[in-house]
């Protein structure tokens, strides 16, 4: 079998029909530790028109390209303006590899400072509070009624601005320094303040003013090798790309064990129904509800008697990809009479082939997720995690990574969700078992690697609990 260490993981990935795409991935992966790479992938309008699963719609080609570029070590941006600004920022300086680099901001005006901090935090950038010793130093330099914990709002810049800037840069939690002031040459000289800063930490500056007025300042900063921009939003982008680049390089340094190997699996030759798809998941230690596949009402009644109540009754057919939308799922069945009524409803659904039923015990309430995978023609299998289960397409809160996955990849996917607080004990609820979610993601990556015949896999919803996860539905689409 191939090696299992992620330091050589490109050699263990499923061969793809696009060697040029894979060469691009490898080139970025090898170059980015030495020189920053910024990428602008096109194709955001692709909504997966030919996808058969919810996962396929959520993980269009743009999301796959972005995920691959990020995993290779690139910083991904959304426009040509961002591409230029990111390149200017990273060409001048980089933060050493770090998973959660701290960004510090000093501003002469509160309004623009709020815009910058809001943008950074919205994108998940770490803006740490300053150490008590740093705050004490700044308190001795600034008047009261200014904010000093990060960002540092100096009010109208004073002669102490350079000393405040130095105190911010000296804080151990800060890995890069951002500075913003409205163009006021009589109040502060940003070129002198930043050029004389006694630190090797990256720095960037932004201002606002008439183009002709601010041009000399920005030109002098460029000569000094310090990125300078003409808006608070562009300064926020500089902080973001510095943080994302440091995180990308830290990720590449992690040696992960990718669980592959063992006896070759039996490949699927026909699309499985839900019961068969769940049996495949069980082979990868992915828990599913107790249930029985039944070919008649009598078998369904026997299954109902043997299972913990209440149960769910589902139409079991590969003709219907999305059973809920077709009326093929009946929930909370507690009696044999209710089961008979449910089976009658399922019998009303028109089918061309044989009719069968899946009778399952209902799962306990929990946080609903969607987990799935799509096989990209260029990058191979890509795994998706999202919040919301059956509402995932409405929420659009997802993370994507290439497979096979290590545990660090899976943990990063969880951390990338905007609504991850729901997994951490929201409003008194128990915290979900993140380790179990990580194991599920790794298992899906392994499944897709070992089953090249699978084009799409949709496990939706997945219920996350304090002590594990459970796959409530499964759809397998063969390529």
Give an account of the 3D structure:
The chain has 479 residues and is of the alpha/beta class. The protein has three domains: 14-35 and 46-74 and 268-287 and 365-479, D-amino Acid Aminotransferase, Chain A, domain 1, CATH 3.30.470; 80-253, Succinyl-CoA synthetase domains (Rossmann fold), CATH 3.40.50.261; 290-361, 2-Layer Sandwich (Dna Ligase, domain 1). Helices cover 37% and strands 18% of the residues. The protein has helices spanning 19-31, 54-58, 61-72, 80-92, 110-122, 132-139, 161-170, 190-195, 211-223, 232-253, 274-283, 297-306, 336-347, 392-395, 407-416, 434-450, and strands at 38-39, 75-76, 103-107, 152-153, 176-180, 203-206, 228-229, 291-294, 311-315, 329-333, 357-361, 367-376, 380-387, 398-402, 454-465, 468-471, 475-478. The strands form four sheets. Strands 12, 13, 14, 15, 16 and 17 form a six-stranded antiparallel beta sheet that branches. α5 (110-122) packs parallel to α10 (232-253). The longest helix has 22 residues, at 232-253. The model is unreliable at 1-17 (pLDDT under 50).
């Amino acid at each position: 079998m191939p090696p299992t260490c992620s330091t050589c993981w490109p050699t263990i990935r499923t061969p793809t029909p696009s060697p040029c795409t894979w060469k691009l991935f490898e080139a970025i992966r090898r170059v980015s530790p030495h020189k920053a790479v910024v990428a602008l992938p096109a194709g955001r309008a692709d909504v997966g028109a030919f996808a058969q699963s919810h996962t396929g719609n959520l993980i269009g080609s743009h999301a796959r390209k972005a995920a691959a570029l990020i995993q290779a070590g690139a910083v991904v941006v959304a426009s040509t303006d961002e591409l230029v600004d990111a390149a200017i920022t990273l060409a001048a300086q980089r933060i050493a590899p770090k998973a959660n680099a701290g960004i510090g901001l000093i501003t002469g005006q509160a309004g623009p400072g709020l815009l910058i901090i809001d943008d950074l935090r919205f994108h998940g950038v770490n803006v740490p509070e300053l150490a008590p010793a740093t705050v004490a130093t700044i308190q001795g330099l600034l008047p009261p009624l200014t904010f000093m914990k990060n960002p540092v709002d100096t009010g109208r810049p004073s002669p102490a601005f350079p000393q405040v800037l130095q105190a911010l840069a000296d804080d151990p939690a800060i890995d890069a320094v951002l500075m913003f002031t409205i163009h006021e040459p009589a109040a502060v000289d940003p070129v002198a303040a930043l050029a004389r800063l006694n630190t090797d930490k990256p720095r960037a500056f932004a201002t606002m003013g008439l183009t002709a007025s601010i041009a000399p300042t920005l030109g002098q900063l460029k000569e000094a090798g310090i990125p300078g921009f003409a808006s608070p939003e562009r300064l926020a982008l500089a902080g973001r790309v510095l943080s994302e680049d440091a995180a990308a390089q830290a990720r590449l340094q992690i040696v992960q064990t990718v669980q592959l190997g063992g006896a070759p699996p039996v490949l699927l030759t026909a699309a499985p129904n839900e019961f068969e798809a769940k049996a495949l998941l069980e082979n990868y230690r992915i828990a599913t509800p107790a249930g029985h596949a039944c070919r008649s009402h009598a078998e369904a009644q026997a299954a109902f008697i043997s299972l913990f109540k209440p149960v769910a009754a589902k139409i079991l057919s590969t003709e219907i990809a999305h059973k809920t939308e077709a009326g093929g799922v009946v929930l909370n069945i507690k009696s044999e009479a209710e089961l008979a009524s449910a089976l009658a409803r399922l019998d009303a659904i028109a089918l061309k082939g044989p009719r069968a039923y899946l009778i399952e015990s209902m799962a306990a309430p929990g946080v609903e997720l969607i987990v799935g995978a799509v096989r990209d023609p260029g990058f191979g299998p890509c795994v998706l995690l999202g919040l919301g289960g059956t509402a995932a397409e409405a929420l659009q809160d997802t993370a994507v990574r290439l497979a096979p996955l290590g545990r660090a990849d899976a943990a990063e996917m969880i951390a990338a969700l905007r609504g991850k607080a729901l997994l951490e004990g929201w409003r008194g609820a128990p915290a979900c078992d993140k380790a179990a979610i990580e194991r599920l993601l790794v298992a899906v990556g392994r499944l897709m690697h070992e089953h090249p015949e699978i084009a799409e896999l949709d496990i939706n919803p997945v219920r996350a609990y304090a002590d594990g996860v459970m796959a409530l539905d499964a759809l397998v689409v063969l390529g």
